[in-house]
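for ur thesis appendix - Peptide methionine sulfoxide reductase MsrB. copy paste whatever u need, i formatted it the way the template wanted (i think)
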Amino acid sequence: MLTSHKTLTMMQYEVTQNNATEPPFQNEFWNTFEPGIYVDITTGEPLFASSDKFESGCGWPSFSKPIVPNVISEKTDTSHGMSRTEVRSRVGNAHLGHVFDDGPKETGSLRYCINSASLRFIRKEEMEREGYGYLLELIN
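the 3d part is after this line
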């Protein structure tokens, strides 16, 4: 696993290992909409496809669903005086963000609000070379 200070930036480490949240509208992928997949920065496990990404106006990358449901785990988060559902990566147990029920109705009403710092983006044209060619059919 890549969960050390030596392999992650300070922000990536704080988000994935200490449940931090990066600033909205000031993160790498909030307004990226090119074809590809998003993988766990700590393990490389595929998490989200660009075909499920949408503009939510929240300032963080938003997805309607993970690539497959079991790549993430959910847990109740009562920090900051509110009750939310935290999402973590399955293999790396990295903090990713939160899931809310205010997403597009046509895709199931979920909004996975994810920190860019917890993700690595693999462009469609790089997926085969990076070992993710088996997921190409998910990309529009």
